[in-house]
Amino acid sequence: MNYECEFTDGPFEVIVTTSGKADLVQFVEGRRRIMRDPRYRPTMNVLLDHTRLNLSRVTSDDLARMADTSLIDDGENRRHRTS
């Protein structure tokens, strides 16, 4: 799974683009990588583009875990709101 992140000066300060075969572990790690980036602030507007993500091998439980996380742990015991 590819999980790319671009920091911009536009209305969306972070643009995340995913592609390839979806994987729950890589999905969560991609989010954590962004949150650990020193440029990231919890108040930033983030655009998530999953239009090229292949979800054919993702279970409904995995999909629920990906979508139902309003608070994400960045791996260092800090919590961040997402939507």
Question: Which secondary structure elements does this structure contain, and how are they paired or packed?
Answer:
Layout: E1 2-7, E2 14-21, H1 24-36, E3 46-54, H2 60-67, E4 71-73, E5 79-81
Parallel strand pairs: 2-3
Antiparallel strand pairs: 1-2, 4-5
Summarize the structure.
This protein is of the alpha+beta class and 83 residues long. It has helices spanning 24-36, 60-67; strands at residues 2-7, 14-21, 46-54, 71-73, 79-81.
Describe the structure.
The chain is an alpha+beta fold. The mean pLDDT is 82. The strands form two sheets. Strands 1-2-3 form a three-stranded mixed beta sheet, covered by helices on one side. Strands 4-5 form a two-stranded antiparallel ribbon. It has one domain (2-81). It has helices at residues 24-36, 60-67; strands spanning 2-7, 14-21, 46-54, 71-73, 79-81. Helices cover 25% and strands 35% of the residues. It is built from two helices and five strands, in the order ββαβαββ. A hairpin with a 6-residue loop joins strand 1 (2-7) and strand 2.
Structure characteristics:
alpha+beta, two-stranded antiparallel ribbon, three-stranded mixed sheet, single chain, 2 helices
Low-confidence stretches: none
Percent helix: 25-40%
The largest sheet, given as strand count, sense and whether it forms a barrel, is:
3 strands, mixed
Number of domains: 1
Order of helices and strands: EEHEHEE
Counted by DSSP, the helix tally is 2
